[in-house]
Amino acid sequence: MGIGKLMPIFTMFAGVFSLSSLAFPGTNSFVGEFLVMKGGFDRNMMAMICAVPGVILAAAYMLRMLQKVAYGGTNNPKHSGLLDLNLREIVTLTPLFVLVFWIGLNPAPFTKIFEASVRQVVNQATTTAITRGGDVSSPVATAAQAGAPNPNLALNPKVHQ
Question: Whole-prediction pTM value?
Fold first, then answer.
């Protein structure tokens, strides 16, 4: 018996935050990981193909940890005295819990906040690459050279209007 039976509320929060950490679809981390992977594949497919096993291993590690902690056996007698989360802890974690799904299911308001600064960094990196004679043939670099908005910066096209 893991701590899942002794601490069901804690286990629920830990499970959701673990799934978010491994970028489960519908959670906040999925949005960031999707944008990074999309941009990476657009720029250097081989590097991203090499990175994919790391993403898979991280997911396997996180799920294995959750399985062992929440549902695995424990031989420590001190675990039998563990108490579940109290009201103060639940009230503290609930806004984070809500944000995990809010950002994951509706990322546009959040990506809009940092869109201008990301565009500036992309333009600066592209300008530096052009100055140094680097390869700037990606669609993002071509758009940045032309001063066009980058459609990869947000999942919602309405953000650019």
Answer: 0.69
